[in-house]
Design the sequence.
């Protein structure tokens, strides 16, 4: 048995295997009646030119253990972005709010938003998911952000110890 996959089951507090992420050693323990909704956001070009259209892809996932209803996603475009179009795999979308509706446990839905870039400045854009009808027992994955025109890091100085070092940075 691998060390990274061990966890303890406590009486009356079952942890289902689908909530265990072996590579990160994260265990999500939800209270009764709660679920875990998550959101990811990507952009097709993080360094666009002024006047160029970019497409944001937002994926919502119901990690369960129950079905979700009243699911909504909010994504208000930055002032340096001009809305062009949007589509969703389910539900309806209007004025920066996507009413996803119901999402079965293990289900996913996708929203794409196309916008024109009006500035060469750094632009941050965030999407947030909520479930009107159920509490989300793991809110740490309820928002996702992408940054356009983020300044490039030219050098990084990191002081290292003689023992183990953990370094994490975007590439």
Sequence:
């Amino acid at each position: 048995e691998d060390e990274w996959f061990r966890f303890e089951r406590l009486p009356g507090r079952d942890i289902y295997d689908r909530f265990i992420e072996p590579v990160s050693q994260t265990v999500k323990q939800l209270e009764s009646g709660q679920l875990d909704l998550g959101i990811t956001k990507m952009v097709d070009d993080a360094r666009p030119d002024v006047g160029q259209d970019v497409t944001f892809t937002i994926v919502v996932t119901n990690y369960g253990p129950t079905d979700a209803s009243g699911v909504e996603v909010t994504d208000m475009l930055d002032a340096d972005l001009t809305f062009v179009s949007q589509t969703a795999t389910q539900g309806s979308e209007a004025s920066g709010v996507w009413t996803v509706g119901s999402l079965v446990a293990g289900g996913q839905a996708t929203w794409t938003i196309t916008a024109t870039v009006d500035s060469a400045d750094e632009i941050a854009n965030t999407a947030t998911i909520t479930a009107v009808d159920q509490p989300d027992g793991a809110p740490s994955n309820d928002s996702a952000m992408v940054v356009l025109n983020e300044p490039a890091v030219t050098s990084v100085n990191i002081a290292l110890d003689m023992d183990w070092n953990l370094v994490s940075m975007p590439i």
